[in-house]
Amino acid sequence: MTADPDGKVTASDRLVTRRDVIVALGGAAAASTVGVDGVTAREAPLHVRIYPGPVPLRAWARYRFEGMSRNWPPPFGDAMTVVEEAFEQVLSHARERSRLTDVDLRVERGRRVRFPLSAAEPSLESVVPSRRTVLDVFRDQVRQRDVGSETTCHLLLCWAPFNFRLGYGGTHPSIDRVGRVDGEGAYTAVNVGATAFWDSRAVTRNMAIHETLHTFISPDVAEAVGGTPCDHNLGTAVRTDDALRISPMATAYAGPNRFDAGTRWEGRGCADHDEFHRHDGHEGVDRYAYTTRLSEATCEAVTRYLERQRPLP
Ligand SMILES: [Zn+2]
Q1: What is the pTM of this model?
Q2: Is the pLDDT of residue 37 over 70?
């Protein structure tokens, strides 16, 4: 059963972000309009639209129904905040080096995406859809809305704690980076239900950043910056007094490859701890901590990718 309080979008669905407040105060003349899809003012070269999927009633109960009228439970709000902050880190890295000086950042909320799939016959796909199916359905719904551009990253926030086929999330198998397919953005998903159920809010935050930044890093850029084509190797795992502290791109990849070591479920993509931007080793570590602070290599990779995406003057 899913709660569906967000069947239609009204003016009250507009999300007020820190950027809205800045605009209202007149502090950022270059900032773009922020709103639900269809209400955007113009294309931005750095544009992320974040869509809530349906949230089960039991999850609403867990959050005391906070945000239910807008289909926006607290972890979704957190995910949006940290994604915006991650790009602010990238832009400040770039601007300290006099790069991307005129790029506007726009992070906004999109309209609710409808799940589960409307399959006529019960099947594995309708009960536990694969990552590809989830992202295909998501892509098709976004396409029907006729919004965004090839510079838009579309991020779906899912609530499917037991969907082992989706895992903690991932990018669309073929439309996985902005600017890769003509006229199309990129599609990615983070399974907030899974990260919240199996791990923690800190892991949810980092995976939201992680799955978004995948759409802004290509293998050749990763290799030019980090020496390997793997995005995850751009991350860091740094020993502190009492923990191993993991950055977003390393999250779900920094621990030993077994259950409940690091994140409860480890990722299945590429990663080599010896090739990480920094990995201090996990021997003897019994606590993992998570920081939303991006590694310098991650900031540099996203900066380079964005520089490539810019239209010619
Ligand atoms: Zn990944």
Answers
A1: 0.85
A2: no
